[in-house]
Write a structure and sequence with these properties.
about 300 residues, 13 helices, two-stranded antiparallel ribbon
Length: about 300
């Protein structure tokens, strides 16, 4: 949607399974292919039809949900006549006053701003998660008083987890059928972060309803903070093709797992120090698990 500008005409032509434009022209001829193009669906019609999947737009609730799903996508489109015309068509389809939709569209534009990741998080996402043991004081005397509290993820780790979770959610919203082949490590629940919890919920919902459409999935969180966030994330990846989505999802989940293990190591070090335990068996097991993940990643790379 962000690529749409006034003066451009966008239509959607869906070819038969296994066909591409070249083979179709050879089979049908140029004239028939051009006829297909003339009948291609305009962007405004496609947007409304696409988002209406799984919704009963004959009801007031269905119309409201359709508007809720469409507005974040329109908010990403440059301002101009094309956006105004699509908004007018949405108003006609939902029977919602154009002024009301315009006000909601302005709110959707504002809601997208918090999704921008902080620079520190972006830098963290580009680097490997480093072993955290070198951050532990060498003796209890050097340890600050706050260390007796349960450690929480650092700003960089939290930002990295957010970027990875959002990336995975965007891919799942774009290609929900890929969820069936994705395994979410149970220990990621222990991160207990808003964005990772949302990722787990989305994946569980997709697995329990294999045929659910993106629009229906977003409708499940309708009128909730999570719903607004998901709608914005869906708009960011709208209509993008990603043949390596499953690989990217698995890689992101693997990185989240490494973050969890690093945090678990910190927690165990602190727990052992405060309890005076000299066993170290649990810490050793965590360190071995972390080494296995890095070895596996190196071998696969």
């Amino acid at each position: 949607m962000s690529c749409l500008k006034d003066g451009r005409q966008v239509r959607f032509l869906f070819l038969p399974q296994g066909e591409d434009p070249d083979t179709l022209v050879r089979e049908e001829g140029k004239e028939l292919f051009n006829a297909r193009i003339e009948k291609a669906q305009p962007i405004s019609d496609f947007l409304i039809d696409h988002l209406s999947q799984g919704l009963d737009t004959s009801t007031l609730d269905g119309k409201a949900r359709l508007a809720t799903l469409a507005l974040p996508m329109l908010a990403r489109q440059p301002k101009g006549m094309l956006r105004e015309l699509i908004l007018s068509q949405l108003a006609e389809h939902t029977q919602i006053a154009l002024q009301t939709l315009t006000t909601q569209l302005q709110a959707a534009e504002q809601n997208q701003k918090p999704l921008a990741a902080p620079p520190a998080a972006q830098a963290a996402a580009q680097s490997q998660v480093q072993p955290a043991t070198n951050r532990v004081p060498t003796s209890p005397a050097q340890e600050p008083r706050q260390a007796k509290q349960k450690p929480t993820p650092s700003t960089n780790e939290n930002g990295t987890a957010q970027l990875l979770a959002y990336k995975t959610i965007r891919l799942l919203l774009q290609l929900p059928e890929r969820a069936q082949s994705i395994d979410m490590p149970e220990e990621l629940r222990e991160l207990n972060l808003t964005h990772t919890n949302l990722l787990i919920s989305v994946l569980e919902r997709l697995k329990s309803s294999p045929k659910i459409s993106t629009a229906a999935l977003l409708g499940y969180w309708h009128d909730t903070p999570e719903g607004s966030m998901l709608a914005n994330l869906a708009a960011q990846e709208f209509l993008l093709c990603n043949d390596s989505a499953e690989l990217e999802i698995n890689e992101a989940i693997q990185q989240l797992r490494k973050l969890h293990i690093s945090q678990a190591i910190l927690n165990q070090i602190t727990a052992d120090r405060h309890s005076g335990s000299k066993d170290g068996a649990q810490l050793k097991a965590l360190l071995q698990l972390k080494q296995q993940l890095y070895t596996q990643e190196r071998d696969e790379g």
